[in-house]
Specification:
Length: 282
């Protein structure tokens, strides 16, 4: 097997080698044109501030933070907090400039990659950089879910539904909204504390409203199937919503998917624990 090697020697620093096999590991990372553009901008300008970079890319704050987080192994910051390429980043820029990346980086998206994008609703979430456009859709989804919960006489508790509730129609609607607004407020605080990502609340709320979509469908399906079948179907909708909520954190707050999944799993765990404490599980 032929392996292409890129070598950069820096004064006073050890020689850094990147081989084609290593670059290939990042083919998914570099498929995104915005991340390739960031590498190219930093390679040409040497350093750039966040605001200038965001204006150049014409992307939302959370989206830019997300791409920078994904490229963290190739970037560094100076004392003025301006972004610049590190040794690995400069090698990657050289490979991009010389068009010496493996051919796998230039082919179209694989079927699995396209499926993943639609599973996570990435094409929709990318449009939330202007959240006011999709905010009505997010609110409509939440209204749809709240009304469905009341219609099916289900007690909503974020990821869970409980049949045969004694609550009034209006109370069920209020509880549904309370669950998702609580999720928004809690996740915004947690992400701000853990990852120092503040602002962009409207985009986060819009993304979470869209992420609620699978769980808003469930009450209507529940009207036509048995409780036993509904239990298994709910599990599928819970998993899908968990993935969408993770994606919402990525786009709404600009954090990597692995960090988003960790936060989503923590929220699910707290949801389960609180319901156990309240005696909702047998």
């Amino acid at each position: 097997m032929i392996v292409t090697q890129y070598t950069l020697t820096l004064t006073g620093k050890p020689k850094v080698d990147i081989v084609e096999e290593e670059i290939s590991r990042y083919h998914t990372l570099l498929r995104d044109p915005n991340r390739r553009k960031i590498i190219e901008i930093l390679g040409q300008q040497e350093k750039i501030g966040f605001k200038e970079l965001r204006l150049t890319l014409d992307l939302g704050v959370g989206t830019v933070y997300y791409h920078l987080d994904m490229l963290s192994n190739f970037l560094t910051q100076d004392k003025q907090k301006k972004y610049m390429l590190n040794d690995r980043g400069r090698l990657l820029y050289k490979a991009l400039r010389d068009k010496s990346l493996p051919p796998a980086l230039d082919i179209g998206e694989a079927l699995g990659h396209r499926f993943g994008r639609y599973l996570f609703l990435s094409p929709i979430f990318t449009r939330t950089t202007q959240p006011t456009i999709l905010l009505p859709v997010a609110l409509l989804i939440l209204v749809f879910g709240a009304f469905g919960s009341a219609l099916a006489n289900l007690d909503p508790a974020l990821f869970f539904y409980f049949p045969y509730t004694t609550y009034e129609f209006e109370t069920i609607i209020a509880l549904f909204f309370f669950s998702w607004i609580g999720l928004f407020l809690f996740s915004d605080v947690i992400i701000s504390l853990l990852y120092k990502r503040t602002g962009n609340e409207l985009q986060l709320f819009t993304c979470l409203g869209i992420a609620a979509f699978p769980l808003t469908i469930f009450p209507y399906v529940h009207l036509f199937i048995s409780n036993e079948s509904a239990r298994y179907l709910l599990l599928l909708f819970q998993v899908w919503s968990l993935l969408l909520i993770s994606s919402a954190f990525c786009f709404g707050k600009g954090i990597r998917l692995d960090k988003s999944v960790l936060i989503s799993m923590t929220i699910l765990y707290l949801n389960i624990m609180s319901l156990m404490i309240l005696g909702r599980f047998p």
